[in-house]
Task: inverse folding
């Protein structure tokens, strides 16, 4: 709808400003509802100030009926909506303008299947899930992928640990594996550990049968633990890849690169020559014939495009892997794959923990499962305060949605280019820029709407609180589009918080039930609810019935 309004303004301004374009308009605007900078552009050409030109032209401008007035301020033309005229159109159900449907694979989470997932995996998991939802919401076919590095050095170290320590079956299996992994690193020096893990990796890659039973036990049980965590978080995948399945093909690619002159031999290792492109060289095949993660990733990426006929592929992986992806993409470009231009690495900063009972456990991983338990426990405390008469079962059900919602929202609201400091005490609050605050706003809207019978829409005099809501509704499609373009869910978090805050002011100052404007205000409540529900869905957050 906003684009239609801007087009009408362009039509009305063309006579006075023949070169005006949609890029000259800004929404939302600091002054007015929509501002226009055309007087800066034209004033420079004519050698007069923007203010002079604006004051000269303003009386000649023909404004469409959808606008009440136009004013000059600091050289800008500021247009004000006729809210009574456009109100009904704004309040219509949101229709997402779908783009051309594309098949896109989003790879995310990628925990090493040798120990439980830690807090760092939360960011890739929540970002990947949300990005998948945003892209799907705009009509794309999304394939959610998880890639398990099941035959790397960390897994080999875990196989070594299995020979030294016993599983006690006292806790979740991937947690026990994490404990053993940590114990191994405390008791065995790094040199011995690296030597032993390389020996194990050699046997596994060459499929000698040695260590195979321990390897299968580690990988299968670690993934079993991951699946429980994913289920708890409501995270799903369409396909899972395993590094061991791409080792052999990776070696063939390395030999092909050697034959084509893109790689060279050094001390019996195969090294890819990337220095001439401003990228460090790296080993593809070690001197003992074992391969690296990059080698397998080459084979997997080719497989993805050929098997699934992808339009594009996205990797949601931390910024510490930036070099890996520069190397991966350059090698695939050297091999002549045209689709490499449709490959994108979505990086993000690290996650640290503050204000948690776990943050003082130096030397140990902070596990996602433990973090979930903590935020849900805090959710239980909050729900009990507000709803003491609910049964234990209802309290736990509501608290889980609140706690996990708080965790997801807090991690997603930070721009992925920045580091994130997660504080469970702040994240669980029902006030401020938090998941529970957005959830609570939806619950409040539902509560109002339950007590109102739907009537024909009548719009009377519109006050400033109602205008602010209507204007914010207009912004929603822009935010959705920007979040898709930039692949940044934090833009949706920012918008949801701003809308919830504007709604709170409306709720405090405007009586809904039984007011003269009940039908109009009920529609404002309903529209707020609908938009916030979409926002929370795109963030992967469930909405409790009560709070």
Result:
């Amino acid at each position: 709808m906003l684009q239609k309004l801007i087009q009408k303004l362009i039509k009305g301004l063309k006579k006075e400003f023949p070169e005006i374009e949609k890029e000259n308009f800004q929404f939302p605007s600091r002054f007015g509802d929509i501002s226009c900078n055309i007087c800066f552009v034209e004033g420079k050409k004519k050698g007069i100030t923007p203010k002079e030109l604006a004051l000269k032209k303003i009386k000649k401008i023909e404004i469409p009926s959808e606008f009440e007035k136009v004013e000059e301020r600091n050289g800008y033309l500021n247009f004000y909506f006729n809210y009574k005229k456009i109100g009904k159109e704004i309040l219509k159900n949101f229709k997402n303008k779908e783009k051309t449907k594309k098949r896109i694979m989003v790879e995310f989470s990628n925990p090493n299947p040798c120990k439980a997932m830690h807090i760092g995996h939360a960011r890739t998991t929540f970002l990947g899930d949300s990005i998948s939802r945003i892209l799907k919401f705009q009509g794309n076919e999304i394939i959610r992928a998880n890639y398990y590095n099941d035959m790397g050095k960390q897994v080999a170290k875990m196989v070594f640990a299995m020979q030294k320590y016993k599983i006690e079956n006292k806790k979740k299996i991937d947690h026990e594996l994490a404990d053993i992994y940590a114990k191994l690193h405390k008791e065995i020096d790094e040199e011995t550990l690296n030597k032993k893990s390389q020996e194990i990796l050699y046997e596994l890659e060459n499929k000698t049968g040695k260590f195979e039973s321990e390897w299968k036990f580690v990988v299968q049980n670690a993934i079993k633990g991951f699946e429980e965590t994913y289920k708890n978080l409501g995270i799903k995948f369409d396909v899972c890849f395993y590094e061991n399945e791409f080792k052999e093909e990776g070696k063939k690619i390395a030999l092909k690169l050697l034959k084509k002159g893109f790689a060279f031999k050094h001390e019996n290792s195969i090294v890819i020559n990337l220095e001439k492109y401003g990228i460090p060289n790296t080993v593809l095949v070690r001197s003992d014939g074992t391969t690296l993660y990059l080698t397998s990733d080459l084979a997997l990426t080719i497989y993805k495009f050929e098997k699934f006929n992808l339009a594009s592929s996205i990797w949601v992986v931390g910024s510490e892997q930036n070099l890996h992806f520069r190397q991966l993409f350059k090698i695939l470009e050297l091999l002549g794959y045209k689709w490499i231009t449709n490959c994108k690495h979505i990086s993000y900063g690290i996650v640290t923990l503050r204000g948690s009972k776990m943050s003082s456990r130096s030397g140990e991983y902070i596990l996602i499962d433990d973090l979930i338990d903590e935020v849900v426990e805090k959710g239980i405390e909050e729900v009990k305060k507000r709803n003491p008469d609910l049964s234990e079962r209802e309290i736990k059900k509501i608290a889980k949605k609140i706690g996990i919602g708080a965790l997801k929202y807090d991690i997603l609201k930070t721009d992925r280019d920045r580091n994130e400091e997660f504080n469970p005490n702040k994240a669980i609050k029902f006030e401020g820029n938090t998941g529970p605050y957005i959830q609570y706003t939806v619950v409040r809207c539902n509560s109002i709407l339950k007590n109102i019978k739907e009537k024909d829409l009548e719009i009377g005099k519109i006050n400033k609180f109602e205008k602010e809501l209507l204007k914010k509704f207009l912004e929603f499609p822009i935010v959705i589009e920007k979040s898709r373009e930039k692949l940044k869910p934090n833009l949706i978090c920012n918008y949801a918080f701003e809308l919830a805050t504007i709604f709170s002011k409306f709720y405090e100052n405007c009586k809904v039930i039984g007011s003269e404007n009940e039908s109009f205000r009920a529609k404002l409540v309903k529209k707020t609810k609908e938009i916030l529900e979409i926002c929370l869905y795109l963030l992967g957050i469930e909405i409790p019935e009560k709070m």
Residues 39 and 54 are 6 Å apart (CA to CA). The longest helix spans residues 464-486. The chain has 19 helices and 14 strands. Residues 357-363 have pLDDT under 50 and may be disordered.
